[in-house]
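Practice problem. Given the sequence and the SMILES for zinc ion, write out the predicted structure.
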Amino acid sequence: MGFVCSPEEGASIPPGRCKPLLEVVDPRPTIPPDLWHLVAWGGRQFGVPGGNLLELLFPRWVLEGEALCPWGAETLEPPGSLEPRCVLRCPDRSRWEEYRRILEEEVSPTLLLFPERIQGECFAASLEGEERQFRWVLWPSRARDQRLLWQEAREGRWDLVIGSQGAATLPLRGLRRVILDDESSEAWRPLRHPRISLRSLVGERCRVRRGAFFLGARVPSSKVFLRASKDPEGRTTPGKRLVFVDLHSLKTVPEEAGVPRSPVSPTLRRRTEEVLRQGGNALWVLDRKGFAGALLCGECGHSWACPACGVPVVWYRREDRLRCPSCGSLQDVPERCPRCGGGWIEARRPGLESLFDEARRFFGARGGGSVEDASLPLHAKERAARRGRLARGGVLLLGTRGALEICDQAPVGLIGWVEADGESLREEHDARFRAYRLLWESCWRGIDADSRIVVVQSRMAGKGWQGGLSRGWSSFWRQELEERRQLRLPPYGVLVQVEAPPEERKRIQAALDEAGASWMEQEGSDVLWIREEQPARVPALLGRFLPPKRPAQLHPRITLWTD
Ligand SMILES: [Zn+2]
Ligand SMILES: [Zn+2]
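Answer key:
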């Protein structure tokens, strides 16, 4: 399958380089001009070959040549400049209220995009039961239904499509407006290559269509903050609902004989107890899978690592195996230390599995109530059953960060972060913001969020960047951006992540040196980081390593971080 982008008359291609056409599937343009524009624009902007972009942007069956009704002639007016409008409200309900107001005020073809499907479902539920002036539909989850909606959207059957990533490039006829919720979410960037920010792509789509672009957030990204730094919402705080516990203080809790010291502080236990007694539900978050994140010989200090990657292995007690978090390879749980032969093996860095023992002890002491694993994926039926149990209350949920979505389905009266430091200690330039976002989300996401207690157990306990949790996101960003400005990190420059084999990397490094660009190798990986103050200079720096004649899979993989 191929697409004809533009006819080229008199092009001279040497004989033998050209393959004959077998069949013309559709002589009329099937893809609207704004989406074609994105393919070319994305290629220039992000150094991603057109074929890869087509795969990212369109469902497989479009690329396999299924006949679609023709799009017809549509020419775009000359594009304007992009002026996004911000909807910054901490509680989800107030943002949604604003979205409904925007939608009612003027009916025009709109895409409303949420980073997680569940949020789209909840918003759709909030539209039900009342007569609306616009014809709306929820982006379906089954491929067959999506196909149908693609056709209907092209035919102009809908004024509003509520969806997530998959709906971002839906060819909605006459599209005039996009509302993108939770704009600072990492979910707008696909995990697989090409890792292009869908937020940027949708913004460009609005620009060429001269459509309105609304960005909603509980906490804005750095770019949006710079546009809205005066917004009074930036001083909204969770107030007394937010409780910090210093993890250092746990060391002073007396240890019971034979039982490892609990990672759950007396404060978190007491607060949980109160919420459950009043018929609420509580969620303990420990963002580390398995039983323990490290295994250590108690006699000689030997620590278990993956033989291939050298990273510490995770002990999964339920499967009774050690697993490498990087390559996934398995090892048996050792009985003796291979270095000194000692048999005293310590589990360090407790993981989610270890919390179950903790929760059972907790309930053993108070009796009644139930414990649920919130990290397991559930089918719709099981989900509904759990919603029923949560509606009755008294449930203690245990999960990793993914469990925060339960707040959309049922009231959660308390969220306790058993260890809140992990995310902020990562190496990425935005590690602190990612950590902040998760805790802020815990304070504001979902049903009855404004009466939820959030207990944060941390070694910083409200100091440093965590101060921004008690003072609001304006305060967080001011402090964070001061540092990034000095280091010329995004949004004050662009970080380019280049993955390429060693030989290619050497050539790229030489070219960068010649151009006077600053770069850095990431140890133990195929990754090269380039720090560049002017994003516009990136294509000139790297363009020659992306020759169009070379197969796309041999190109270096480039990811831009502009924030
Ligand atoms: Zn040993
Ligand atoms: Zn490994």
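Check your answer against the key. Residues 384 and 409 are 9 Å apart (CA to CA).
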